[in-house]
Specification:
alpha+beta, five-stranded mixed beta sheet, three-stranded antiparallel beta sheet, 17 helices
Length: 371
């Protein structure tokens, strides 16, 4: 409801109990590119939320003196080429199975496949031991664990102060998911994420924190975008164009991410009084960027939509906190679409069921078959 009503918040509007709402992409980008007046470490920012779970070191690594060092060292881990290679190595064989199953006349649940693919990526990134590497169930469990951790943020729109019970539950999940990180950080080869973190000089604490944040930011968001983009291509009949012009996959990925905007709200805290779009924002106030609303203002999914400079990558944030794992998300979605196009035939939706009580809008089930 907030995102729907957000179109009346352009460019910026104050809402009692929530703070300042922004649904204008230019204003949102101006705020996200202004570290002198806005921070994610105060009330309303994701850094404030996760510092309660991961520890006070987050204040330095997220937005303090250590942030530039962390970003500079970690940026090499997530280039477009490295992300594509990661997805091809970890998820490629499973996506090939999807292509073969569809070609054989079977139905495939794309929502479930997205969760499995993301679970595989997370397992590889965190160095998790999987007893049966070919068993989808193991990766569903990993995805669901990340989902449970992300879901602890439900209800934080009004305040990012977490109850003690929520913090305790989150720390238990973090300990479970990072139990193997220390050993992998010491022993992993340099071509694996954790080994590369070691080679780049990232300490164990920073590596564990980076691994947790990638898990939280890259589970529901990536899986949601994958299933929803497949549905959009079907519902708008754009898949016909894409099959005829497969070189347009990058356009389909960009447009799918714009319309779905898996991170629909981005929060910041005002750290110093500032004037924005004619309004006076004061230190201590909260700002919510309604990115879903801003990104969808130009209209629905359109494969022919021209590049929108005001909205460029706003679905991943902006400024120095632009999502570090954005290339991985693009690579996952690209690999999925290529797997579907490899069948040589259009797909139809056999069954769809929406996710309920979820942090990110998603499909609980999206079963497709070839026409």
């Amino acid at each position: 409801m907030l995102l729907t009503l957000g179109r009346f918040a352009r460019p910026i509007r104050r809402m009692p109990g929530l703070g300042w709402l922004v649904a204008d992409p230019v204003t949102a980008r101006r705020i996200l590119n202004d570290p002198e007046h806005f921070t994610l470490l105060g009330e309303g920012g994701v850094g404030h939320l996760w510092a309660q779970v991961l520890g006070d070191w987050v204040y330095d690594a997220f937005d303090g003196a250590g942030h530039h060092t962390l970003r500079t060292k970690a940026r090499e881990l997530f280039t477009e080429d490295n992300a594509a290679a990661l997805v091809a190595r970890v998820a490629g064989p499973r996506l090939d199975q999807c292509t073969a199953a569809l070609a054989a006349g079977e139905t495939v649940d794309i929502a479930d496949l997205g969760r499995v693919v993301v679970g595989r990526i997370v397992a590889d990134l965190l160095g998790l031991h999987v007893a049966a590497p070919d068993d989808d169930a193991a990766y569903r469990d990993i995805f669901e664990t990340g989902e449970r951790l992300a879901a602890l943020a439900l209800g934080s729109t009004a305040s990012t102060h977490l109850p003690e019970a929520t913090v305790a539950a989150a720390r238990t999940i973090v300990a479970q998911m990072t139990g193997g990180v220390a050993a992998a950080w010491r022993d992993a080869p340099a071509d694996r994420l954790l080994g590369r973190c070691r080679e780049l000089g990232l300490g164990l604490r920073e590596t564990e924190g980076l691994a947790v944040l990638l898990m939280v930011a890259g589970t529901e968001t990536a899986a949601s975008a994958m299933a929803r983009t497949v549905a959009l291509l079907h519902d708008t009949a754009s898949q016909q164009r894409l099959r005829a012009e497969p070189h347009r996959i990058a356009d389909a990925v960009r447009e799918g991410l714009r319309v779905t905007t898996p991170a629909p709200v981005i929060g910041r805290s005002v750290s110093a009084d500032v004037q924005v779009a004619g309004r006076r924002l004061r230190a201590g106030e909260r700002v919510l960027m309604l990115t879903y609303t801003a990104n969808n203002a130009p209209g629905g999914f359109d494969l022919d939509r021209e590049y929108l400079p005001d909205n460029r990558q706003l679905w991943f944030g902006a400024g120095r906190h632009l999502c570090l794992g954005a290339p991985v998300a693009r690579a996952e979605l690209t690999a999925l679409l290529r797997a579907l196009l490899a069948t040589g035939r259009p797909w139809r939706i056999v069954e769809r069921r929406y996710g309920r009580r979820v942090l990110i809008p998603t499909y609980a089930r999206l079963r497709i078959a070839l026409s």
